[in-house]
Design goal:
The chain has 321 residues and is an alpha/beta fold. The chain is 39% helix and 16% strand.
Length: 321
């Protein structure tokens, strides 16, 4: 057992999805706060900060029963971040986001019955009818809650952005244009959070006794942002102060999405397709007070302007922008 900077006991954290965008930030932060970590990875870690800090690696995947048992054995908390955000078809989404979650929960039941479970899902799970991705994330939540009950906390992040994210990079690429297209309707609202704020929240929740809750993360504006606020902040972050924000014609968005649909029919895992467009154009991705995640000693540090500036600085330092 280790002691954190706040004086609390920090047990071993078993982490899935450590090689992904959120997972990399999470592991770096856990190590920095004195946690012992054990990671499920398909290969040895290539991230320099992890080496030399005692990070244990279990080779395998969510489909490997023995690897999952080694991962969770003796852990104080399991933090399940792994999951697919794009896939060629519904089956692929469900195999990872539902069946992989079930396999991990089964391993906890078998060899770590006292271990807490923090399941990092997605706000998309609130609207499972919108896409195969959203449905698979909701199915993963349902599986782990049915199996582990009060021993699990489900955390639904909204749109997550920050250094290293390839999916929200498109916002900043669009924001460099003279005419910046707004992808949603004028009335739509979406909550957002910087990745550093999210992983600090995850760490704080990992120290708490779960109560079977489903919570949603957000920055200091859980009511969310309109599209003109998001793309306006992105334009300021890239230095395009004279950008003109225009609502993208629905016909154009549908045409772009149809190209993605054609790719999926060929077995390609395209991010933008008709289902993703339904998610993007959904009217309400705000977070109510009743579902908002809070934790002791945690408050969001980034607003949209400071968070976007941080992301852009990282992208430019690596020639992504």
């Amino acid at each position: 057992m280790l002691i954190t900077k706040t004086g609390e006991t920090a047990p071993l954290a078993a982490v899935t999805g450590a090689s992904g965008f959120i997972g990399q930030h999470l592991v770096r932060m856990l190590i920095g706060r004195g946690w012992s970590v054990r990671l499920l990875l398909r290969s040895e870690p290539s991230i320099s900060e992890w080496r030399g800090h005692g990070a244990q690696v279990v080779a395998g995947s969510l489909a490997n029963t023995s690897a999952l048992e080694r991962l969770v054995d003796g852990a104080g908390v399991v933090i399940h971040v792994a999951g697919l955000i794009k896939a060629a078809d519904r089956t692929e989404f469900f195999k990872s986001n539902r069946d992989g979650t079930r396999a991990l929960a089964e391993a906890v039941q078998r060899v770590a019955p006292a271990t807490r479970f923090l399941h990092v899902s997605s706000l998309a799970a609130r609207e499972p009818q919108l896409s195969d991705y959203a449905a698979s994330k909701r199915a993963g939540e349902d599986v782990v809650r049915a199996m582990l009950g009060e021993r699990v906390t489900v955390l639904r992040p909204p749109a997550v952005y920050g250094p290293g994210d390839r999916e929200t990079l498109v916002f900043f690429q669009l924001a460099r244009q003279r005419l910046v297209p707004l992808l949603g309707s004028p009335s739509a609202r979406a909550a957002m959070i910087h990745v550093d704020d999210l992983v600090r929240l995850i760490e704080r929740l990992a120290t708490l006794q779960p109560r079977g809750q489903v919570l949603t993360a957000a920055d200091a504006r859980p009511e969310g942002y309109h599209w003109h606020e998001v793309l306006g902040a992105a334009a300021r972050a890239v230095g395009n102060e004279r950008a003109r924000l225009v609502h993208a014609p629905q016909a154009l968005l549908r045409a772009v999405a149809l190209v993605g649909d054609a790719g999926r029919s060929l077995g390609l895992a395209n991010m933008l397709n008709s289902q993703k467009l339904r998610e993007l154009r959904h009217e309400d991705w705000s977070v109510s007070v009743g579902e908002l995640a809070t934790a002791p000693d945690w408050a969001p540090q980034f607003d949209l302007d400071t968070g976007f500036a941080d992301a852009v600085a990282w992208y430019r330092a690596r020639s992504w922008l």
